[in-house]
Write a structure and sequence with these properties.
Blueprint: H1 11-24, H2 36-43, H3 47-60, E1 63-66, E2 70-73, H4 78-102, H5 105-116, H6 124-142, H7 145-168, H8 173-190, H9 193-213
Antiparallel strand pairs: 1-2
Helix pairs in contact: 1-3, 4-6, 4-7, 4-9, 5-6, 5-8, 6-7, 6-8, 7-9, 8-9
Length: about 220
């Protein structure tokens, strides 16, 4: 069997990166239309790469396409929120157990560094990026390639989940997230797996409660 040469990273991938970042920055809110003509004019590329980029983002879960509406930024349903929360929880249980059991001092330092970076976040969207980066560090420290792949498969959707959460309420959000992650780092360093799992579960629950109950459901 013969195969052709590997394709270089194409223009559509670069376009997908730009649109993804615009979604993560809040420039395109959940439910916002992503019109090919407007994107083509704004990015100064033909509609082909735009269409391919939107298809790629749809596979990530960031975009939804309906024949009568075209492409829009995914607006998470109640079921989406519940499924993401439960799947994220299942993955984190394994990640936390592995970090507590066998993470190196260097890996723990990288987790702590990711938490410390939150001190410099001035806006909710910056904080969401820091939150995702913290969990990237946790999965990296778990040293389990298939677990990391499973996290990468839902990473963009979890990012959207957290953006949706801050769109509901930002009251006390920045300091709350800093404090929660300082506690998570301390629990991992202590090596108490039950305590760490409890804190990670509480951290997830706070975001879930805001999304399912509105601002009144926000935890401390």
């Amino acid at each position: 069997m013969t195969v052709g040469p590997a394709r270089r990273r194409g223009l559509s991938s670069e376009v997908a990166d730009v649109i993804r970042e615009a979604i993560f920055d809040g420039r395109y809110a959940p439910g916002a239309p992503l019109r090919e003509v407007e994107l083509s004019e704004a990015l100064k590329v033909s509609r082909g790469p735009i269409r391919e980029a939107l298809q790629s983002l749809e596979r990530e879960g960031l975009v939804r396409t309906e024949w009568h509406r075209g492409a829009t930024v995914t607006a998470l349903s109640v079921q989406d929120v519940a499924e993401l929360d439960s799947l994220r929880g299942a993955l984190e249980v394994l990640a936390v157990r592995r970090v507590v059991d066998q993470a190196s001092d260097e890996s723990l330092e990288l987790i702590e560094k990711a938490a410390t970076a939150m001190d410099r976040a001035d806006t909710p969207h910056e904080m969401v990026r820091c939150d995702i980066a913290f969990h990237d560090a946790v999965y990296a420290a778990a040293a389990h390639s298939r677990l990391t792949q499973a996290w990468q498969a839902i990473r963009s959707q979890v990012h959207l989940f957290l953006i949706t959460r801050v769109n509901v309420s930002t009251h006390g959000y920045l300091e709350q997230i800093r404090e929660e992650h300082r506690d998570l780092v301390a629990a991992l360093r202590l090596g108490n797996v039950d305590g760490a799992l409890k804190l990670f579960a509480e951290h997830r629950r706070h975001a879930f409660d805001v999304l399912t109950s509105g601002p009144s459901g926000e935890g401390g």
